[in-house]
Amino acid sequence: MAFIFQYLFTNIPNTCYSLVLIVGLNQRGAEHHKSDWRGMHLIQVDSVQRWMEDLKLMTDCECMCILQSKPISTEEDAQSELILSSQNSAYDNLQLLLKRAWIISTELTRIAQKLEKNRWQRVHSMTVRVNCHVRSMINEYNSFTRNSSEEMHQFEKLLIEKCSEFTAVTERGIQTEDERTLRSMKSCINETLTTVAQYFSQLIELALTYEIQNLVRQINSSDNMYITESSTSGLFSLTQEGAHLCRIIAKEGGVVALFKICRQDCFRCLYPQTLKTLASICCVEEGIHQLEKVDGILCLADILTDSTHSETTRAEAAAVIAQITSPHLTFTQHLSSFLENMEEIVTALVNLCQEASSGEVFLLASAALANITFFDTMACEMLLQLNAMKILLAACTDKQIVDTPYSREQVVTILANMSVLDQCASEIIQGNGVQLLMEMLFERSSSGNSAEVAACERVQQKSAVTLARLSRDPEVAHAAIKLNCIPRLIELCRSPTERNNSDSVLVACLAALRRLAVMSPDGLEDLDFQQLVKPRLVDSFLLCTNMEESFV
């Protein structure tokens, strides 16, 4: 499970606050943020296995409450009995910290829920358990962190004191049955719970920052291959925990340290992992700002254009380009250095698409090209000059290379954006592109996965948009009509299941149908013409969205 440590205090009835730990799913490259084109990987964990893992972190509440976390053994003996070995890596330490924090966050949320239902006995027992977990977490963390800051110690002290106060006030709640007293106590408990949650989130933030600083420091100061690889892998794993950790990594110099690796030939074997980490960090604005500051675009261009680098390395560099040019990010337009290197980058990406030996490599390179066509209009003209249309259409005939709806989405995105150019029509005809667009109108998910279904919808929508744009050329329009595009477009308009109830697909198909109907009015039955072509577009849209599915 991936944890995004962004703590939100959300109001629930009776002024009770619930600490929400936002749980994210690893999606490499981004929210289309870490970009849909990487695909989605859902981590399934057996519940018993998860319970066994969490059990290691549980503590006997009564013993801990009595002992107040004080070790029975002498200080010297206690050092040998610590839960964590001092040799554990910073990443291992962070993972344990994240697990402890997840447990505490979950318990705080449950306390708020039980308090809302006036389950005073449960509130108290859970508060005691949280108290124990907090003390254990602090003890464990201090066992492997010898030089934590004074600010950290201060927050530890405040959190422990507030947890003790929390336990004491909930204990008074189980000792009285007077409703008026309990109502007044409830307000006090809510306030204490909120304070505990705030101190807890601030402490976790400090601890995460400190450990990330250690990883970045190791990368900057070490020439050792193993240490550098271990630290880079640690940073990558942390980026998968969510955008909040990516911001901390960027703020603490992670982007600068990683590009330092990419500029040293002795670390060439680490380039793929390093670039993968950079792509993940650059899902946030802070990461892209840091990339710009260290001339990261120039470094990426050098890697992409250097044929001595492995295909894997160049593919990961393409992934970084795809991330920083994503049209879903609103903070990429300041990348002035990208425009300076765009021609070299686009040329290298087209070559990578042409030479791709696997579907993943083609996906990353084509995703970067698709995003660049949104990023700057000159890119479409460059692609036309580089015969990119021919290369992409040829790649689509190889089912080993263009093997997923995500790859086809990148291709049709590029075609849609290039179709605004008049010269594009002849390229489409020569490359049998109309046939490909027709096939894309039949795109369906084989797995039923929600992300894949959404990708199929976008393929259908964009293929219809491309047909509508290209059909201003009579030759393309006649080719589409000859391939029976009109019946398929009508089917998509009239049958909600064929378009997966997608309104965007419906609008695109209506637009394409109207464009083709101008060229071949005899290709439509009178009812189709009266309902789908003759009325205003909005009227046809409303008709199709409200009609019962009756088309056969």
UniProtKB/TrEMBL annotation:
Protein name (record): INSC spindle orientation adaptor protein
Residue ranges the record marks as coiled coil: none
SUPFAM superfamilies: ARM repeat
One biological process term in Gene Ontology: asymmetric cell division
Domain Protein inscuteable homologue C-terminal, first and last residues per copy: 100-552
Pfam families: Insc_C (PF19427), INSC_LBD (PF16748)
Organism annotation: Pelusios castaneus
Molecular function terms, GO-annotated: cytoskeletal anchor activity
GO cellular component terms attached to this protein's record: apical cortex
Domain Protein inscuteable homologue LGN-binding: 43-88
InterPro entries, sorted: ARM-like (IPR011989), ARM-type_fold (IPR016024), Armadillo (IPR000225), Insc_C (IPR045789), INSC_LBD (IPR031938), INSC_LBD_sf (IPR038205), Inscuteable (IPR039921)
